[in-house]
Structures are given as C-alpha cells and as structure tokens.
Design brief:
By secondary structure, the chain is of the alpha/beta class. It contains 11 helices and 16 strands. Strand 3 and strand 4 form a beta hairpin. It binds dihydroflavine-adenine dinucleotide. Its cofactor is FAD.
Length: about 375
C-alpha cells in the first residue's frame, strides 16, 4: 500500500479544498507547494499588520449560498463591497459604469437622458459588423465611454492596440442606470477577517503540507509514495511542453509601504489613460477597514508572459485553445492523475468557482470509488 491516497500538487484554493474534503473522508493526503508559502494566488503577506494581496487584489463574491457558508465555516468574512474608481487624466469617476460615472462624465443626472445619450453615440458610429475589440466596445457603449474608460486600460492590459485585439474579449459591457457603485452583482461579498491565509489555514488544518517542493524536481520519487496525484500546476508543463507552450498574460506588482495612514481613500483605482504605465493602484488596508499607522499600495503593471514569469491570465485564442485540446486528450487518458484549478484547466476561475469545481471533483471521485 502507498503511504498517501492523494498527493496534491499545489496549495491554492483547488488543492486546499480537495485536500480538506478528502481528509474528511478518511483519505491520507500530502500537499506539496513549490512556493515558500501555502495559498496559491490568494496568499496574503503581512506588512506592519496589513494583509497585502501579493498576487493581485482578491474580493470574494458569489451568489451561491452553499459556497458562502462553506468559506464562512473556516473564517468569518467582513462586509467589504468593492467600489473602485477610475482615474482618467487626473479626473476621478465611479465604477462600474453607473449613473455616478455618467454624471461625472457628462453632467447628466437623469437615467432616461443617459440612455438616450448612449444610444445616440452608438448610432452615430453606426458599427454594424464589429471587426475588432474597438469596434465591438463602441458598438455597445459609444465613443465617450470607450475612449475614457476602455481604450487605454485594455491596450495596457493586453499590450496591443484595441484595433488589433479580437472582439471576443469583450462580450458584455454592463452599464447601470442606477446610482450604484457596487462592482459585483453577487449577493454575498467580502474579505476574510484577518486575510485569506486564515481560510487556507482552516482548510489545511491537520494536513501534511510541504512548501518549497516542486513536483517536477522529484516527480519519480513522489509518484512512488502516492496512489493518485491531484495536479493543479500547468497542464503543458506536466507533459514537458511537448506540444508547445500554452500562453498567458502576466503581471508585475510593485508593492510599497508608505508612512501615512491613507493614500487614496479606496481599495482600488483603475488608471484608464494609456500614458500611465500601470493599470491600477491597490491600497490593501481598505479591504479590511484597516486603522494601521502606515499603508501599503501596489501598482499593477501588465506584462508579456515568458517561461519562468508568473502565469496569470490564459489567452483563449484559437492557437492556445487548439493546443489545450491536444493536452486535454492526453490528460483524459491518465488513470491516476486528476487535473484541476486554473492552471491545469487553463481557465480563468473566480475563487467561488474554483472552490465549487474542487467540491464537485471530490464528489465525483468518491462516487466512482464507492461504485460496486
Ligand atoms: P493557484 O494558482 O492559486 O494555485 C496553484 C498552486 O500550485 C500555486 O500555489 C502554485 O505555486 C502551485 N504549483 C504549480 N506548479 C507546481 C509544481 N510543479 N509543484 C508544486 N506546486 C506547484 N477571484 C475572485 O473570486 N475574486 C477576485 O477579486 C480575484 N482577483 C484576482 C486577481 C488576479 C490578478 C488574478 C490573476 C486572479 C484573481 N482571482 C480572483 C482568481 C483567483 O486567483 C483564482 O480563482 C484562484 O487563485 C485559483 O486557485 P487555484 O488553486 O486554481 O490556483
């Protein structure tokens, strides 16, 4: 008999939920993590008592009461509501696009008049068959909103002109005709009180975790000690990139401690002008209504991805999706390896979705294992 039922590669939300649930079912799990900390991309680093979202700001939001109760069973969440601002050439606007934004942009305060204004702008451009992201966005919200809020931000995000980007990137551009700055539409929202590490610690409580261990360095020895592997790393890496790389968009974070209590008065400001090199500034203490003496801000710079840099956003274009299909066909044939999470599935997942996915995977495996 092998020492472990499951070797779980990666201690992000997928790996941690999987390990927790299987341990509850009496399975023996070992979690390995190549970084020097647990938690994957939701990990927070404590700086002068402030939980710094080291891999980008994370706001938990869901409509699923079951998932909300699940996370709250490990740590209590606060009532933080994400209401970011946009800074365009020094002027501040509320986000997401709502009556506050439109008033700030056009000084029109009546919903019907705003609807009319947007409709006129769309009609003026008369784009019937959008060919690229720029056309697509203008045909949905008109030129003013596009030029102030979308063009520069999107071009920085993707490192390409909006006219060269495919239109499928923008499927929806929600506009609200109410004065409502709540970024997410979900019923349940918040931040774990004390940070995301508390959620991960709760999930992994009592489970053996080894950090600083890269699966690929000790692959042969590691598979000897386990019955099955749960792999949450990069799918193409698992197969030694033999059909080429799956590409990503990356980010660089510039974190800075400032000796002042309040830098920008809000958790997030998006910089929508192309001339500002970063896309947003996050001030972490505001996620938890922090009262610390100092503050930590993070400037987020989108970057080209290359092998070795952090993989953040999958690029779901045709080339990558075809390549993914080839790897997925290999993965399907594995009998002792389970793939899950954002990297192994090459898919953008929100936190509530990745938790739901891990719970559903556990359920399926338990059902299959107990079938006569
Ligand atoms: P995750 O990447 O967290 O974990 C995988 C782990 O596997 C990593 O720790 C990695 O080091 C480890 N690993 C990989 N290869 C390995 C190997 N060979 N050996 C050992 N370990 C290995 N969602 C949301 O709901 N609200 C939000 O506000 C945000 N914000 C946000 C901002 C940014 C910038 C990004 C990129 C993403 C978000 N998200 C989000 C999404 C959220 O980050 C995501 O849902 C989870 O982190 C996914 O968890 P996983 O476990 O799938 O991956």
């Amino acid at each position: 008999m092998k020492k472990y039922d499951f070797l779980i590669v990666g201690s992000g939300l997928f790996g941690s939920v999987f390990a927790h649930e299987m341990t509850k079912m009496g399975k023996k799990c070992l979690v390995i993590e190549k970084r020097d900390h647990k938690g994957g991309n939701v990990y927070c680093e404590s700086v002068e008592g402030i939980n710094v979202h080291k891999y980008g700001p994370h706001i938990f939001h869901t409509n699923d009461k079951g998932i909300w109760d699940y996370v709250n069973s490990f740590v209590e969440f606060n009532n933080f509501i994400y209401s970011p601002l946009a800074n365009y050439q020094g002027q501040l606007f509320n986000l997401p696009f709502n009556m506050n934004t439109f008033y700030q942009l056009w000084k029109i305060g009546n919903p019907k008049e705003v609807e009319k204004k947007i409709k006129e702008q769309i009609e003026k451009e008369n784009i019937t068959a959008p060919q690229n992201l720029e056309d697509q966005a203008i045909s949905m919200v008109g030129a003013d909103i596009y030029n102030v809020f979308i063009k520069g931000y999107t071009e920085k995000q993707w490192g390409r002109k909006a006219k060269e980007l495919p239109k499928f990137i923008i499927k929806r551009l929600p506009v609200r005709f109410t004065y409502d700055n709540n970024y997410f539409n979900d019923t349940y929202q918040g931040i774990p009180i004390g940070g995301y590490n508390k959620l991960i610690d709760g999930l992994l409580d009592g489970i053996e975790v080894r950090t600083g261990v890269d699966f690929f360095k000790d692959r042969n020895e590691l598979i000897q000690i386990t019955d099955r592997v749960v792999f949450t790393g990069k799918l193409d890496e698992f197969y030694d990139y033999k059909f080429g790389h799956l590409q990503y968009r990356s980010l660089r974070f510039e974190h800075k401690y400032l000796n002042l209590p309040n830098y920008q008065g809000v958790a997030g400001i998006n910089f929508t002008d192309l001339n500002v090199p970063y896309t947003r500034i996050i001030e972490h203490k505001h996620f938890e209504f922090g009262k610390q003496k100092g503050t930590v801000i993070t400037k987020e710079y989108p970057q080209e991805w290359s092998l070795g840099s952090e993989a953040f956003y999958p690029i779901n274009d045709r080339m990558n999706m075809e390549r993914l299909g080839v790897y997925q066909r290999l993965a399907k044939k594995e009998e002792k390896v389970i793939f899950g999470g954002r990297l192994a599935e090459y898919k953008y997942y929100d936190m509530h979705q990745v938790i739901a996915s891990a719970l559903s995977k556990v359920k399926k495996i338990i059902q299959a294992d107990t079938m006569p």
